[in-house]
Amino acid sequence: MNISQAARETGLSQKTIRYYEGIKLAPAPMRKSNGYRDYSSADIELLGFLRQTRQFGFSIEECRALLDLYQNPKRQSAQVHQLVQARLVAFDQRIKEMQQMRGLLSDLVAACANDQQPHCAIMDVFSGGLNKVADNTADNTADNARTGNSSAVYESEANSKVLDK
Fold first, then answer.
1. Domains in the chain, please, with CATH?
2. Stretch 80-95: mean pLDDT, rounded?
3. CB 84 within 8 A of CB 75
4. What predicted TM-score, i.e. pTM, was given to this entire model?
């Protein structure tokens, strides 16, 4: 089957399939005499496996590890469990960060007069909120912002109540 058929069958785009081949996540398929890719049922199964793992949020390297386990008949389920458990912990952390961000956005919406006047509390925060937060939460927030620890910045912002209600 050619690449467009493989894309339809697996739910991946042709570009994604080529990318996976380029980074050696998926092996390059056999080529026909005309040079076109010729995907076997095993290739389709492997690409479908990769689509599923990516849909669950696994990184390319995590997919590579899962694929190695998938192809290893002597794998131990504990190895798979460990990788999936780590992904679950990462999701839980991301959910926590998103909930904190939602709280901040909710505070912004509540602080806005939502009227015809030019003053906007949301714009006040956007134009200088991080400086105000850093002033109000000591060096911890500034250090987190500088090091790229965005979840800690959001948490510090939430804890300091960016907006005075």
1. 3-75 (1.10.1660.10), 102-160 (no CATH)
2. 96
3. no
4. 0.67
